[in-house]
Amino acid sequence: MTSSDDQAVLARLQSVRALVVATHEKPDGDAVGSAAGLVRICRCRGIRAELWLPEPVPLRYRSFLEAVAPVRTLSASALAEFDALVLLDCARPERAALGPEWTLAQLPLPVINIDHHLDNSVSAAVSWVAERAATAMMVYELAATAGWTLTPEAATLLLLGLVTDTGSFRFSNTTPEAFRAAAALLEAGADQERVVNAVYFSKPRNQQEFETELLSRCLRRGAGGSYLYAVMPEELFARHHFDMRDGEGVIDLLREVEGVVIAGLFYARGAWTKVSLRSKDARFPVGPLVRKFGGGGHPMAAGVTLELPPEEAAAVIGGEVEKLLGGVSGEEGKHEISSR
Amino acid sequence: MTSSDDQAVLARLQSVRALVVATHEKPDGDAVGSAAGLVRICRCRGIRAELWLPEPVPLRYRSFLEAVAPVRTLSASALAEFDALVLLDCARPERAALGPEWTLAQLPLPVINIDHHLDNSVSAAVSWVAERAATAMMVYELAATAGWTLTPEAATLLLLGLVTDTGSFRFSNTTPEAFRAAAALLEAGADQERVVNAVYFSKPRNQQEFETELLSRCLRRGAGGSYLYAVMPEELFARHHFDMRDGEGVIDLLREVEGVVIAGLFYARGAWTKVSLRSKDARFPVGPLVRKFGGGGHPMAAGVTLELPPEEAAAVIGGEVEKLLGGVSGEEGKHEISSR
After folding, report:
1. Is the pTM of the predicted complex or chain greater than 0.90?
2. SS3 of residue A252 by DSSP
3. Which of A39, A224, B92, B334 could cysteine-pair with A329, CB 3.0–4.6 Å?
4. Which residues of A touch B180 (CB under 8 A)?
C-alpha cells in the first residue's frame, strides 16, 4: 500500500524539467487519455515530456496519439536524460508497460505514481492514490490546482479517460465532481464528438458480427438468472478476426440485461483463461471475489487471469459468484434490483 | 413558431394554485422525467398538481411514476378545477397525449408550453421553447431560478430526462450546462444508479433476443457503407413479443458502427411505416430530410411516419439519404468521420 499525497506529487511535477510518462499494459481509454493528456500539458508548460508506450493501443484510440508520438523503447542512456517517470493508472508494478527490457524496480530514475485504483501496490518516490472516477480526473485536478493551461487537445485526452472509465457517466463512480470536470473540459475546448465517436460510435463491423454470434451462441445463466456469463471459444475470435484487446464494452452486452446482477466473460489465452466480471449492485462487489485468485480492479469492475481452461475457470468463478449472490435469485433478484 | 419566454412561463407557474401536467404521446424518458419531475416540484411547493397520462409508459420507466400516480382521463368538470395545463416536451399540438376525448385547442384552460424542440408549433398562453439538451433541463432551470426545492425524488426524475435525451451525455446536445445540471441533481440526491439501471441496464431478455436477430438478419447498407439501416418485418416483433414502444436505444445498435454516418430503422404499423433516423455528423442532419415528408425531431435525431409499406418507405428515404450523403462514401466517409 502506498501513501497518498497530491501535494507531494504536484510539488515534484512542478520541479522537473524532463519527464517520461508511462501507464499499464493493454492500455485502455483512461491509460491513453491520462498519459497522453499529461504529456501534452507538460509540453505546453515547456517541459520535455515523452510518452513511453511499448505496445500498440486499441484501434479506436490510435488517432488520439498521433500528435503525441509515443516512443516504443528507451535505453538506459535515453532514460538518463529524464528527471522522473510518471506512472499513471497502473495498480501493480508488474503491469507497468515498459517493454521486455525493463521492470519498474530496475528503472534508473524516480517514479511518480498517480492512480485511482485504491489497491495500488506500486512503490514510488511519491504516490497519489485516491478514489476518483478515472486517473484522467486526477490529472485534471492537478492541472486545475496548479493553474496549468489545458489546450483543447489536452482537454480532449482527459475527457477520453473520464468518458471511458465512467461508461459515459453511467457507472457508480460518476460523482458531481466528475460531471463538473467534464463541463470544464468541454469549456477548455475538448472535442466531445470525437471522444464519443471513438469510444461508442466506432464499433468495427467485425466486432458487431463477433458480438452478434456471442449473444446467439455463448450466453449462459446462473444464480437463478442474476448471473449472466459467456464462455468464448478461441475459434469465435479467429472466425471474426477479433482481438479482445479491442473489446472494451463487450461485457456491457451482458451487464445491460434486466435482472442481471453480475456479468462475466471467460476466454482462453493459450493455457490461461482471462476473466472479466462486472457487478450492478454495490451489495455484491466482484473486486474482493477476484482478489482471492490474485486478480484486481475496482469493487464493481474487476478481472483475473487463471491458469485453467475456460470451462474450468467458469466453474471455479461461477461457484464463487453463486455463493456471493446467495440470497438473490431469479424473480427475487430482479425485484431487489428494480425496487431500490 | 411560438414566442420563447422563460420569464413569462416562470411568472405563470408562480401564480397558479392547481396545475395539470401533460406531455407527448408515446412518452419517452424525457417526457416521463420532465412531467413527473415538475409534478413533484409543484406538490412540494404546496400546489395541487396532477400528471395526465392517458397511455402506459415503457416498462423501464413505470416504477418512476408510482408515487406520482398519473390520471388517465379528465372530464371537463375535473379540468375546471385547474388553473392551467403545462405541456412538456411536445413539439406539435396533435401529439399532445390527452386521450381520445380532447384536443389541445378544445381544452377549457390556458396552456403553458415548455419544450426543447426548436420546431415546436404549439399555440399556448405562454411558451418557452429553447435549445436545451432535454425538457427536463428546462424544468431544472426553472426550479434553480425560482429557488424551488428539489427533493431527491424530483431530482431523480429530472436526471432521468437528462440522461435519456443526451444518451447519457454522449449526444451532441451535451453542453457544459447539461453536465453542471447533472452535478447539481446528484447533489440534490438524485438516484443515478436507479436511472442508469432503468435506461441502460434493464434490457428485457426478449429485447436482447429481438436485437440479436435484427443484427443477424435485417441489416442493410447504402451510400458506400455510410448509411446503415434495418427493415424489420412485423413477424420479427411477433416472434419476440417485442413492442417498439419499449425500443429506445435499438437504433444505437446501428449508429454505433464505425464508418456509419446515418442510421435508419423502418417498421410497419398497419398500412404505415415508422421511420427513425440518426446522424453522427452535423454536416449531414436528418431533421430537414424528414421534415420534407411531414416528420419532425432534432437535426441529428428525427422521425416520420409514411403511408407506405416498409420496403417502399425504405426506398424513398434511402434515395434522400444517398443524396444527402452524396460526397461521403465508403472509405472516404470513414476517413472524414475519423479525422475530424
Report:
1. no
2. helix
3. A224
4. 179-180, 183
